[in-house]
Amino acid sequence: MSQPFHSTLRTAAQPIWDAIFSHPFVRELGAGTLSRERFLFFVQQDYLYLQDFARALCLGGAKADTLDTLHMFADHAATVVQVERNLHTNWSDKLGLTPQDLAHTERAPITQAYTRHLLAVGHSGSLAEIVAAVLPCYWIYWEVGKKLNDPPPPDPLYAEWTQAYSGEGFGAHVQQQLTLIDRLAQDSSTDERKRWAEHFIQSSRYEYLFWEQAYRTEEWPV
Catalytic amino acids? Predict the structure, then answer.
């Protein structure tokens, strides 16, 4: 391969990513004008999403091919469960949400579909398939965080969000996953890499729809 495999993935998904960067939820979050109702909906759904994202990471650890890779997945899953939950609890307090409110939140349609996609790949896919499926969540949030944090939003709550996802700690986790997918691609076939790209693009589409769902505060119609 003439370029790192992650660059190939990024090129394939670029139209989807461009749509995410220009989405009104993202633009208004960066401008500090996003309504609290929409951000509240987002926080509740993201809280639910991250529980299953952590489970998908655990499945990646179960299929790790080296001890270092197992350690990485275990560390990332623990971060999602501990650090991210604390962030959401902090934001929830500021938004007037109680732990009981979060516990009783129902998964909205895209949240349900996206998490089932990740868990299906986690249970039936290879290590590389799992990395390709979870990578957009890492990478897109890092890119969005960096874009919106330069300069930070004028709203302190939204600035806290952008700083969390543009920080060095989160960026290091993204780089670890990028390095892993590039390593796995070195000894893979064209068909395998095509399947990984399909998972990556599908997850990127769900990332777009997750922002769209929050902007519309979309719940089940019946």
Answer: 137, 207
